[in-house]
Q: What sequence folds into this?
């Protein structure tokens, strides 16, 4: 029995070695296919980026799963299917020059993508157990190709416009009341600073649900208004993937209690 068990162990080890060796003999597009990222590969071919990723590199590819693409809104998928320029920009945002392994990633690191106008923000949470790239969680890191490395991620990375928090609030109709409060509280300059900051942004409905007269009272008391607004802001980039139960310090000085519900 011991001999049979030993043979089984050796077989598993040999299979593991073969798998990794065979993966390392593949270039990034072929390895992406092997890893099941077939939707991404199809988009890469449409945009003409598959041939670039067969070059010498090395490259790092943050590769969304098929499910990540499936979960995109229908309008976004239709836009990607018809706008090749946008598609290419989105895909280039998933690739960096150089082979960057998870052990090299640092919290709040900005990694230049192939579109050199766009940086990928790296964040590390839970003692290194969770790594995100622009909020998308790395779920299968360090897959070696002959010309780089692939990290499988659970969401499609969005190359958002290069705007700050007040500018984002300005262009979001559902946050118009919040924007008015930020202006009245003279916090625009603070939230336009280098940061990084995370804003837990109440939408218009949240303000509508306040007791009658409370919003008016806040707007007439700038000190109280500023305190309330700063209580919604924390330092650092806190993506939802990295949130854990507990207290987080706010710009107001008091901690806000975070409770994470299971999805």
A:
């Amino acid at each position: 029995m011991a001999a049979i068990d030993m043979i089984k162990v050796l077989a598993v080890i040999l299979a593991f070695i073969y798998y990794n060796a065979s993966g390392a003999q593949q270039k990034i597009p072929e390895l992406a296919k092997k890893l099941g990222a077939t939707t991404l590969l199809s988009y890469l071919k449409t945009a003409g980026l598959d041939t670039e990723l067969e070059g010498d590199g090395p490259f790092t590819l943050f590769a969304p799963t098929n499910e990540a693409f499936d979960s995109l809104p229908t309008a976004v998928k239709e836009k990607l299917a018809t706008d090749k320029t946008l598609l290419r920009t989105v895909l280039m945002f998933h690739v960096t020059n150089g082979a960057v392994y998870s052990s090299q990633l640092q919290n709040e690191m900005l990694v230049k993508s192939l579109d050199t106008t766009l940086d990928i923000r790296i964040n590390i949470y839970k003692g290194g157990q969770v790594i995100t790239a622009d909020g998308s969680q790395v779920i299968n890191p360090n897959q070696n190709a002959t010309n780089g490395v692939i990290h499988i991620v659970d969401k499609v990375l969005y190359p958002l416009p290069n705007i700050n928090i007040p500018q984002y609030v300005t262009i979001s109709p559902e946050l118009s009341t919040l924007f008015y409060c930020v202006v009245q509280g003279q916090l625009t300059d603070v939230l336009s600073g280098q940061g990084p900051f995370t804003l837990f942004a109440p939408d218009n409905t949240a303000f509508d649900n306040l007791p009658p007269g409370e919003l008016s009272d806040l707007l007439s008391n700038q000190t109280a208004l500023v305190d309330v607004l700063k209580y919604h802001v924390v330092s650092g980039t806190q993506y939802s993937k990295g949130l854990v139960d507990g207290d987080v310090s706010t710009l107001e000085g008091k901690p806000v209690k975070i409770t994470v519900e299971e999805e």
